[in-house]
Amino acid sequence: MATTPFVRAGILGRARDSFTDLASASPARFAVGVFIALIVVFTALLSVPAASAAPSGTSFADALFTAVSVVCVTGLTTVDMATNWSAFGNGVILVGVEIGGVGALTLASILGLVISRKLGLRAKLMVASDSNPLRIQRGPIAEGQAVRLGEIGGLLATVAISTLVIEAVIAVALLPRILLGGVGLPDAIWQSIYFAAMAFTNTGFVPITTGLAPYAHDLWFLGVLMLGVLLGSIGFPVIYVLSRTLRKPRRWSLHAKLTLVTSGILLLIGAVAYFGLEFANPHTFGGLDGGQRVLQSFFLSVMTRSGGFATIDISQLNGSSLLVTDMLMFIGGGSASTAGGIKVTTLAVLFLAAFAEARGKSEVEAFERRIPTDVVRIAVSVGLWGATTVAVSTIVVLQLTGERLDFVLFDVISAFATCGLSAGLTENLPDSAKYVLAATMFLGRVGTVTLAAALAASTRRQLFHRAEERPIVG
Questions:
Q1: What is the mean pLDDT of residues 34-47?
Q2: In what helix (H) or strand (E) does residue 364 lie, and over which residues does it extend?
C-alpha cells in the first residue's frame, strides 16, 4: 500500500522536530557532531577507487587526513593534490571545501531558509552557535553581541551572496591570466574556479603539479589571491556590517572595528618582518628586486593568516622567519570566518586587558565601548587551550617522528590554525602522526572551547560566593 502524503508529512515533521530539538539543546555539541559526520562521509567518498587517479585507490590514512583537511579548510596534504585524485575526487574535494568554509550549520540553515522562506527560533540558534558558539552556551544572546539573534536572517543572506559573488569575481579575474599562460579554456575555467574557492575559503590547495611557480612573480595573480584570502579571513559578521554601513565607520560594531584594525596591524607587521628577515636569504627573497621583495613579503604575511598558498619553499625560511610565521598562524583570522587560529579579536581583547591592567583600570575598553568581563575570560580560555593543544600535539608528533622541533612545531601550528603551510614534514609522516595532525586540525576548526563546552554535561549555576583570597601572581 502506498504511503499517503499525510503520513509522509507526519514522519518528516517528527524527524525535523527531533533534528531541531537536538540542535537547540546543545548547539556546540551539535556542531561537533555535524563536523564529525561530514568527515566520515568525505573519508568514505575519497576512499573509493573512483576518487583516485590510481587504480589501487587511496589509503585510509591519506583519505581520512584529506577529508579532515578539506572539511576543516586547512590545506595540509599527505598526497599530491594535483595528481592523486580523479575528476570525481576533485569534485568531492571542491564541494567539501565549500561546505567547510561556509560552515556546515550555516549552509544547512541557508538551505532551510530557501525552502521555508523564513527562519524559526531554533534555526536562528543553530546559526548563532556556528557564528558565536561561546555566547550561545551561556544562555540568551546578550545585547551587543557581534551578531544578534534578529540579524541571523540577514547574516545568512550575506553568507550566501558574499560567497557566490566573491568567488565568482575572483574566478573571473584569474581566468584571463591563466589563459595567457597557455592553458586551454576548459582547464583554465576549472583552475580559476578551483583557485577562487581555495582562496576565499582559506584552504590553499593547488590544482596543478607546478604549484604557484608559473605565477610566483605575477602581481595580478598574487594580488587577486591575496584579496580573496583577506575577504574570507575577516569573517561573515564583518562583511555583513560593511555591506550595510561601509561609508559610516562610526556605526561599525566593536567586533568589526577590532577585526579590521588588528588584521591590518598584523598584516603590516608580518610584511615588514619578512622583508627584513629574508632580505638576504638567497633561497627566498635574496635574489629578487625591491618591488618583488615587497610583493612576496605581503603575500607571505597574508597567507600565514590562514591562506596556505606559497610561492617559496617554506623549509628554506630562516629560523627567525619560521618563528614569526608560527605566531601569525596561531593568531589566524577573524571570528566566524573561513580562517583558523585563536582569532584576531581574541588577541585584541587579551592585549586590551593587559593594557587596562597596566594602567590600573578596572574595565577593559576599546573604541569608547566597554568589553564585558566574560569576554575577557573567554579570550584567556581560547588562548590557553589553543596553546595546550599545540604543545601536546607537538610532543606526540616529535615522539612519533623524531624530526626537527622547528619543523614539527610549524606543521602542528599550521594544522591547529587550519593554515595549510608546511615545512615539508606532513607529506612524509607515518600513519600514526597523520592521525594526530588530523585530530589537531579538527580541534582547530571546531574550536577548543566549543569542544570543551560540547563535552560538558551542563552549565551549572553557582548560587553562592566563597571567601576571597588573593594568590601571588607574577
A1: 93
A2: strand 364-366
